[in-house]
Amino acid sequence: MAQETILQHWIFTKFALPFLLVFFIVFGILEKTKLFGPEKKQLNALIAFVVGLILIGAVSPTLTITNLILFLTVAIVVLFVALLLWGFISGEKGLKFEQAPKPLKWFIGIVIVVAVIVALFWALGTEATVFGQISEFLFKNDWSTSFWTNISFVVVIIIALVLVLRKTEKGE
Q1: Distances in Å between the alpha carbon of 19 and those of 36, 49, 72?
Q2: pLDDT tens digits for 55-76?
Q3: pTM for this structure?
Q4: Cβ contacts of residue 17 below 8 Å, gap of 6+?
């Protein structure tokens, strides 16, 4: 069995972290709104302390907050990866992305979203779930090879037609 660290101990994860999170959020809100007046740091801290203690005394809200924070951290990392990919594509030293055609921007955005979703499924290890079933249906059947070959030809033909028709509309 893996060795447990202090950050994984149940006292830390079930009590200390939720208490500190709620304490600092409530204290920050009370300080920002000046609900009890200016220069009332001790009163704001005491109220935040009591609210934090009330929270860890109840199991259900603590569990809800813990689950929400876990979801939030995963969502922030996924969003960071998507924005990082977008930054690589539209960076100053690379393409002049402001001058790119709008359909290209949409296409790249959709590709990034799909890539992040696929990477998220891969990172979650959900091969046996819906994503695994979809990928098996689309890529591991007898008809898959010919289907994807035909789809690629159709996409190439559509792109060629769009490029040719766009040039004739501009009068070139």
Answers
A1: 22, 8, 17
A2: 988 888 888 888 888 888 888 9
A3: 0.54
A4: 66
